[in-house]
Amino acid sequence: MLRIGLTGGMGAGKSTVARILVEHGALLVDSDVIAREVVAPGTEGLAALVAAFGDDILAADGSLDRPALAAKAFASDEARATLNGITHPLVGKRTNALVASAPADGIVVQDIPLLVENGLAPFMNLVVVVDAAEELRLRRLVEFRGVDEADARSRIAAQATDIQRRAVADVLLDNNGVDGVIEPAVHALWTERLIPFERNLRTRTPAARPTELPVVEANPEWPVQAKRLIARLALACAADARRIEHVGPTAVAGKPAEDVLDIRITVAEAAVAEGLRDRLSDAGFPRVTDRTAAEGEWLHAGADPGRLVNVVVAVDN
Q: What is the side-by-side strand order in the sheet with 2-8?
């Protein structure tokens, strides 16, 4: 299955994008919904919170009184750690179960408000960030959701910055326009990138590319894009990679090049490279050819049609 991480600041329009993707056929796993489910009445999560913070965090009907919990849980770093220690494992367990239930050809969209803050980007095949100016987000929260302005500003300030979100974004959806303007961009994302990416991932097929690629002007985003890919590759390789580096023409600042990123993974021996074959394929970088195996190098390539990449696995000499 293809795992998409969806995030964005409060009021950016993440829910709108999620809805459109679900209408196209995606399976939505909503972190906020799960966070409420795991502390619903009768759950082990709610019982653990009561044991940790007292029964005065309960409303009259036995449900969780969230403001009462917040007053206690955010009073100190220790209390916040206690809260996170109870809820995060439960949310993770439920999330994993929902993702595992998806069909083999599914496209799973994980709506995660704190994707950046929790360092979850490398676990996704693709990260989509819904972007909107802070003042516009603030106005949406106040006018359409009825959030107090001071509270809205405080919540926005507590989240990752726009710069931090953009750094993990494989896809940046501009939602600064009026309602409905973003829909064609989401439709294009689904048909032109997500559908072929899922197919390529499932069939372990590199993304199609022309026989000859034009040389383009240097893109200052190349190193940032490479850093995202390296994080995913490092997760797939675990401790089996000695080095993972951005190499080739796109690694040279200011130099025109073909718009293909070259990543080099250095391993200790050929057996390690063979052991990485399936793991890299599962992560979205299928093996292309063993033709260079005699020279101690194996070529993989990205399955994502929106970001062409070559990955060479080489034995350290």
A: 27-30, 107-111, 2-8, 126-131, 171-174
Q: In the predicted model, is pLDDT for residue 294 greater than 80? A: no
Say how far apart CA 29 and CA 44 lie, in whole Å: 21
Closest to 15 in 3D by CA, of 4, 7, 26: 7
Helices 134-144, 149-158: inter-axial angle, 10-degree rounding: 140
CA distances, 159 to each of 42, 118, 144, 152, 164 (Å): 31, 11, 20, 11, 10
Dihedral-angle region of residue 11 (phi above 0 means left; psi in -120 to 50 means alpha; beta otherwise): left
pLDDT in tens, 174-219: 999 887 789 999 999 999 999 999 999 999 999 999 989 999 999 9
pLDDT tens digit sequence for 64-93: 998 899 888 888 889 989 998 999 999 999
Phi, psi dihedral angles at 305 (to 5 degrees): -70, -15
* Cα 237 → chain centroid: 18
Structure tokens at 120: 């979850």
Tokens 């130099």 correspond to 255
pTM: predicted TM-score of the whole model, two decimal places: 0.91
Extract the runs of DSSP E, i.e. beta strands, from 132-247.
Answer: 171-174, 215-216, 243-247
